[in-house]
Write a structure and sequence with these properties.
This protein is of the alpha/beta class. It has helices at residues 2-30, 36-64, 90-98, 119-125, 146-154, 175-184; strands spanning 77-83, 106-113, 134-141, 161-166, 188-192, 195-198.
Length: 199
């Protein structure tokens, strides 16, 4: 800890020294028109001191930054995705799930919630994205409402853990992170973002 602190101070001091060297010429020129003490105080207060502090904070963050690693898990998981008139995004969302580097088997339940467009067609066409570690299943819920669709999908969940995602979600979704957090926190029975429910 002390070593990192001294390294931070040393880096900030080097930054301050270089800044003073670059600012000396400007200070000398301005001192011809204004009192030198005033010029130095302005430069120290506006540039040198904030630069010293910020460079120290920056280097300290670099030294203390840690890449959070999650343990690998082969736990099978079910992902439930509700879709209502999402023909433009559902296929991309399905591809996002299927392209995960998760080691366990993923069962993706895509629940069509009374869609009136070509959502069903897009889901069926996405079956080609299935592979040995990801199985896609199409379900249809005839009662409109996301809660109704999720409750219907729960009947087909056969794994210990399940996760719900939006059909408009196209960014990388890290299943290994979510499932490893659930496995570590055995006292919790449900997760919803940062909200947890104790068992």
């Amino acid at each position: 800890m002390k070593r990192k602190f001294f390294c931070t101070i040393l880096f900030a001091a080097i930054w301050l020294t270089v800044s003073i060297i670059f600012s000396l010429r400007w200070i000398q020129e301005v001192s011809c028109f204004l009192p030198a003490v005033y010029v130095w105080w302005v430069v120290i207060g506006i540039a040198l001191l904030p630069g010293f502090l910020m460079s120290g904070m920056f280097f300290s963050n670099l030294l203390h930054s840690k890449h959070k690693k999650y343990p690998c898990t082969c736990e099978n998981v079910t992902v439930m995705m509700c879709a209502h008139n999402e023909e433009k995004t559902v296929k991309k969302a399905i591809r996002c799930i299927c392209n995960q580097s998760y080691q366990g088997h993923i069962t993706l339940l895509v629940i069509d919630n009374c869609s009136s467009d070509c959502t069903k067609k897009e889901i069926i066409q996405s079956y080609c994205l299935s592979h040995s570690h990801c199985t896609i299943k199409y379900l249809y819920c005839d009662t409109l409402g996301k809660s109704n669709a999720l409750n219907y999908g729960l009947k087909f969940v056969n794994t210990r853990y399940f996760i719900t995602v939006m059909s408009t979600e196209q960014t990388a979704f890290f299943l290994h992170k979510t499932t490893s957090e659930k496995r570590r926190a055995k006292a919790f029975g449900a997760f919803a973002g940062s909200v947890t429910k104790r068992t």
